[in-house]
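For the sake of clarity, the format in which proteins appear in this thesis is described at this point. Each number in the token line that follows is a code from a learned vocabulary of backbone shapes. One such record is shown here in full, so that the layout can be seen directly:
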Amino acid sequence: MKHIINYLAFCLIITLGISCSKKIDNYAGPTETLKGSIIDSNTNQTLQSEVSGDNGKGTRIKLLETSWSDNPTPLYLATKQDGTFNNSKIFAATYKISAEGAFVPLVQTQSDGTVIVDKSQTVTVKGGTTTVNFTVEPFLEVEWVGDPILNSDGTITANVKITRGTANPDFQSDITDVNLFINNTEYVGNNNYDNRYAKHINYNGANGNNILGDTLSLTTTNGALPKGRDYFVRVGARINYGLKQYNYNEPKKVTVP
């Protein structure tokens, strides 16, 4: 009889433990949507980037949940390569929101931690969809000069013009490299390209600055591209600053018949 009572007591404890665990975990999941755009101040168009995340260094959105803590741990959201973001799994709260990428930082601090520029936005995310846009000054502007050309030898040439995107001398570091990225999908950039045909040009010191304002021609390498396929190409350029992220033009499709 004593064993039966002990067994029933043990079962009761286990049952209560499971019930308590379910109660503790019974919080509403994140259901709010945060979306928006990163806008180029020079063109008023969304700023081209690459898909950010584990394998990329594109633009990312930084969230600080100020309604929970005075010193919150940053939360980062990925952006799309077209300069937009849309995340539908955000907890309702008040956030200090900014963006980080290949542009003049929205939040700047001195060496002692003093904030000297703060263009972040404090927003209450609640009630469905919240839209937050940021206007930024890119380090570089990469512009198409005409459409990409399919050459008679089966290679592709892209002509571009690269200029400074900001007049702020603190963010006019030397150009380190320019790259023609190519892929068989529209998702193309430093985090997703076919290295067999991509063209890379590296510069030493201030030599890369000599290309500013001129038309630069870049042609795919390694001979003729396989026929009967569509390819997407675009050019990325970067300066020697911070995480050395790329500025891009928009992808364009080339069909190799």
Q: What stands out?
A: The first helix runs from residue 2 to 24. The helical segments are 2-24. The longest strand covers residues 229-239. Residues 1-23 have pLDDT under 50 and may be disordered.
